[in-house]
Amino acid sequence: MNNLHYNPDVLSCLANLSNDEVFTPPQLANQMLDMLPQELFSSPDTKFLDPCTKSGVFLREIAKRLIEGLADKIPDLQARIDHIMHHQLYGIAITRLTSMMSRRSLYCSKSASGKYSISQFDDEDGNIRYRDIKHSWVQGKCKYCGASQEVYDRGDDLESHAYEFIHTDNPNTLYKNMTFDVIIGNPPYQLSDGGNAASAIPLYHMFVEQAKKLQPRYLCMIIPARWYAGGRGLDGFRTNMLSDSRISHLTDFADSSECFPGVNIAGGVCYFLWDKDYSGNCTICNVSKGEYVTVKRALSEFPVFVRSNLAINIIRKIQTVDTQTISELVYPSNPFGFRTYIRGEEKPFTGSTKLLTSEGVGYVRRTDITKSLEAIDTFNVIMTRAMSGGNKPGSDGKYQIVPSTMRVMEKNEICAETYICIGSFKHRVKAENLQKYLSTIFARFLMLQAMSSIMINKDAFQFVPLQDFSKPWTDEELYAKYGLTDEEIQFIESMIRPME
Hints:
- The protein is of the alpha/beta class.
- It is 24% helix and 19% strand.
- The strands form six sheets. The chain has a nine-stranded mixed sheet with strand order 3-2-1-6-9-11-10-12-13, with helices on both faces. Strands 15-14-20 form a three-stranded mixed sheet, with no helix packed on it.
- Mean pLDDT is 90; it is low at 1-8 and 10-19.
């Protein structure tokens, strides 16, 4: 390629800059727009809103389609552009900077009233607004987004991340009760609460829920896929999404870099189309390594969303043989009542019990144990709550799904909140066989279907069938027990890396 003729789209370049407030590549924006009925772009009455515009890519690509689609109805090009810009395209920017970027993308000028704007407005905002909104603090938290007052109650020179669209009880007032036919966008994904990224507050679901209040004909957004299995602040959202028969299409990327080049989002991403007048099964498209697998099925078949169309048939086949799962053996979070920062005494003493922590071994009084007393004198399998390597495919396309630590916990041993506790067996051999079972490719593949983050919890085992642990199990025995085909076995083993 001759570099003298290389003219990249600046919005494609911007899309590679962040993995928090992720910019949308034009190609991806157009894939999402392709899901909409295309006659929308031939009507002079269709109104579009991006409630979280950053680069303005959605509005720009919609404008291109409208300029072409309305050519017969409004032959004069300038009159057509004026009509589209003034009466069909609207945006709410997430920062002052992105408002200028969006206006530059749509109007070719950061000021809609400037002399270089392709359509003249009376004010510099045009139809792309930005308002400096403040958080509404209640007992140290924003009542709208949950932001920490300690972290975000700061000077005007620092970004507060109080996004206008979700900081109101009635979004209809933002555009004077205007009715939008299409709401489309790529909302901010999360907000740090002062801790590490794993403890950040999810935000994207708030934009989806707020958009539904406006009752558009169509809603299309790209969001992290972590909602598939719920989690912090997402359980209600997951339930609502899975039970909403108006979601007609969902495209799933297990590897986020396939739609956001160079950006890694644990658990992947998805975009969906919500159609107010639709009711039925959802057309689900899995994208992996450039291949597309599409199946029409109910989102609500399981308590969590199983993203893989191929995995669905495997789970169904297993459940015709066994209905009990490993979840029944998993103790609740923080099984013995000791938080992660508890270390215990350095040496054993009379009446002490060994405490396994992330920092090693400590000793606590047996009388101080407040939970799961029946498990103290049994053998259990414990594993760290966080996966080693994260929930993302490696360069070979396979997942590890391996806890940092997994071992048999002896009698008179307990663990801190760092670990998940599974089992409670009288005989050590059964605990050993459970550990071996959870190390199989088969079991870890089924765990993957219920996980959308790096954290392992009780729900992660809801598809892993319970076995007779008086004997060890191999992958080959498990494949045979459930009658899996060569194709299904190949698919499972193409997804999960063997444990060392």
